[in-house]
Design a protein that fits this description.
heterodimer, A: mainly beta, B: mainly beta, 7-stranded mixed beta sheet, 56% strand
Amino acid sequence: AQSVTQLDSHVSVSEGTPVLLRCNYSSSYSPSLFWYVQHPNKGLQLLLKYTSAATLVKGINGFEAEFKKSETSFHLTKPSAHMSDAAEYFCVVSPLYSGAGSYQLTFGKGTKLSVIP
Amino acid sequence: DVKVTQSSRYLVKRTGEKVFLECVQDMDHENMFWYRQDPGLGLRLIYFSYDVKMKEKGDIPEGYSVSREKKERFSLILESASTNQTSMYLCASKRRYNSPLHFGNGTRLTVT
């Protein structure tokens, strides 16, 4: 079994300030973890992924996330927000290895990021 | 780059109509998925397919069926559309195991 909790449904930051979007997970298996971004009326775009290599993962558009097994967290950060970062962000967990349920991905409810000029 | 193409961005249908949503991917991915996305409910899995002619029910399959006759194409069928099926529908594909999902741009379906 697996689950994902995005701790904030809405985050608001000023342009140029750091972004922190929080994600906690639980999984019976070793997990793969992903962050996606969705702009209005668009599909989801992959920002970054963790699949058991380096725990600090760098993604597109200056985002990065750190896998912390002891805290079961995979928080998304960016040093300086841009207006174009305003969107909804989803944290996703899936089993790392094959086996029952390996096709199943569990999505968080999403965090809407607003960027204030 | 992986491309997942959904045939329609916006669709308006009447109650009781049979509706086909088409999805094509160009990267030879084994797995394909249909989700619906509703405000406050997040993404919910309708059906997925892990091979040609193979399908598995997701969390909310009622009122839907799917078809996968070719590896690159995965169709979602609403046998008799109802107003509660008004939603954003997202198709996705992936390789096996720990690879990420690749999404299409979505189809916003309105059933009146």
